[in-house]
Amino acid sequence: MDESNLIGPPRSEVEQGIANAPTFVAGLRQLFEAEGVDASDALDELDRQVAEHLDWVRATVLPRTREDGRLPEELYAYNLRQFGIDIAPEQLMAAARTSFFEIREQMQRLAPQVAEAEGLDASDYRDVIRALKREQLAEDEIEDYYRGVIEEIDVIMRAKASSTSRNARWSCAWVRQRKAPPARPRTSARPR
Fold this sequence. Notes:
mainly alpha, disordered C terminus, extended
């Protein structure tokens, strides 16, 4: 850890890892207890080892962290290439900015319609979103609400299924395929 030319991890990630560790260990303990497996000795040893590791992380890794989560430009470009994105980061950022501005403009055009439909006294998309966020479902209502939404979608899909249009048949085929078990991945190249 004496390599001063290496960048450290983002501080927020390290702190999150430290905060999550006790929850993960407690979750393991609960899983073993739920299955009726007595692993208390092994889990006590795991507790000790995790605590020792977290002490090391606090003493060794945390001081080397960086406040800024952004990667240096060269490393960012390298990571993009590893995911098959071969355009320069500047071009990617420009495309992202353009998309953001286009989407923001679309949201602004839709905001008055949404506000009118919801009875809101707002016209700016930010105000409309803020107002909509104030009306939250209670936690015990979420599942039932979305079951209803899914049922409404199913009605629409069935109506489309009776249609003779090609798109409707494709949509229904997609739904059937979604319910089918996943296809087995190919292990060899397709013959030509």
